[in-house]
Amino acid sequence: MRPWALSAPVVVLLISLPLLRPFRHPGTRATSDDEMARLATTQALVEQKTWEIQDTSFAATGAKVYRDGRFYSDQPPTMALLLAGPYWVLHRWGHTFETNPDVVAYLLTILGTTLPVAFATGLVYRMGRLFELQRRWRAGLALAVVLGSGLISYATALNSHAPAAALVLASAACLIHVTITNERVHGSIWLIVAGACAALAAAFEPAAVIFVLLFGAVVLALRWTVAQRIGGLLVYLLGAAGPLMLHVSLVQRTTGNVWQGSGLAARHGHGAGAADDAYADAHAVAASDAGATATAPLETEFEPEQVSFWQSFGAGAGRVFAAFFGRHGVVSHFPVVLVGILGVTMVMHRHWPSTTKVLAAGTLVGGLVIILLYAFRARDWSQAMFATRWYVVFLPLTVFWVGVWLRRKHRPVSWVVASALLAFSVTVSILGATGPLPPDGFGNAYTAAGAARNLLRGRHSAEDRDLTDAATLAGATIRGRARE
């Protein structure tokens, strides 16, 4: 056991554990719709052996889909399936969502998000061998990646973005290990693991599927023969096939949309207040009981607005600019990512191995594709939450390339600028960890300032509590009608 290797994960745990949402804000009033939907599926799988969530303790969540007369969570189902195992053990020990809801939610949050983030910190320390840095610098790089990229922000609430980012880092770590060792036989095993990690990240966060493709290009850049490269790619795809097939099969049992929960699919329940959503749900159930044709209860029909191509393109281009410098911008919140981008350019100008160059370029290409997807396809930006939660999947890997910058000597002014960018990024990230997923979202407000206001003034007003109580009552009505 190396002290430097353990120091970074321990620091992450010391920061995260006291800030976990079930500990600081217990109860469903401070729980976001997405978190409630994931917990609802986990509870339904263990207690009712079904994917339907209308009879769970979290049925009032707005993040659900009405299909074939039943309600399902609109979150990707793979993570809830994996959480069902630990919850089954807790359930056997007498800790359930009915008896100890906050304790169960706290433990599941640790297992689902906090520990993967701490594990990712250790991975970055190991990946730092690529840059031939001393151990203390590798530990510092690991902390910079987790604390400066916004990953620590999402380590305090149950979500799919943090574990997906950790899995992307794990896949990259496997590829780096193959690059360093350059062993064919053992390398095949690591390629299977790399494919499985990248595909599992896509099962958690569907937009991460771009990295499954880009990391395949890294395999083709290995210093192997052509036949060995093709074989390595097939092995990599074999590892990726399992999680992807699992995701598709589970989605077909629930929502039927492989993009559900990513923010790119049609959202259900985030457009109105929780009480209105619950009322709409109850109305849909009543219509179904009466034999009427029930439509998707949480969608509102609008007359489509005729928008020209250039107007749509201009709006999307504006959102792309805002993705970097706007109120939900990457640079606005985590400017240390600029040093990571600079590190990628340094990789391209030095005599680095081709696999390292492809991996570095793939990091930027993957991040840009995800930004473009959400700029032109995302509909509900009030659910971007702190900074932009959809960007968490690629930001840690982007900041990882700061290690290239650390290899070189710099003038004092460069160190001062880089340190200032890192300090600002870390401050904003830790600030976001106090409440990354508020129930009502952050809207279009500058989210770091919104998090600070929530921290200083308290999150819930009397109006919020009344609204939540109404939603809870409506949810109970839904469950009662469903049982009838």
Overall description:
The chain has 484 residues and is mainly alpha-helical. It starts with a helix and ends with a helix. It has one domain. A hairpin with a 2-residue loop joins strand 1 (64-67) and strand 2. A two-stranded antiparallel sheet has the order 1-2. It has helices at 3-16, 21-24, 33-47, 77-92, 101-127, 135-148, 161-181, 184-204, 209-220, 226-253, 274-289, 309-325, 330-333, 337-349, 354-377, 395-400, 402-407, 412-433, 447-457, 462-483, and strands at 64-67, 70-73. Mean pLDDT is 84; it is low at 267-304 and 460-484.
A few lines on this structure:
By secondary structure, this protein is mainly alpha-helical. It has one domain.
N- and C-termini, Cα separation: 58 Å
- Which blocks of ≥5 consecutive residues have pLDDT under 50? 267-304, 460-484
What is the string of helix and strand elements?
HHHEEHHHHHHHHHHHHHHHHH
Strand percentage lies at under 5%
Which shape, going by the Cα principal axes? globular
Radius of gyration: 23 Å
Structural class designation: mainly alpha
Total strands: the figure is: 2
SS field, number of helical segments: 20
Instruction: Estimate the helix proportion, in percent.
Output: 55-70%
Q: Report the major sheet.
A: 2 strands, antiparallel
Main sheet: which strands, in order across?
A: 1-2
Q: What number is the mean pLDDT?
A: 84
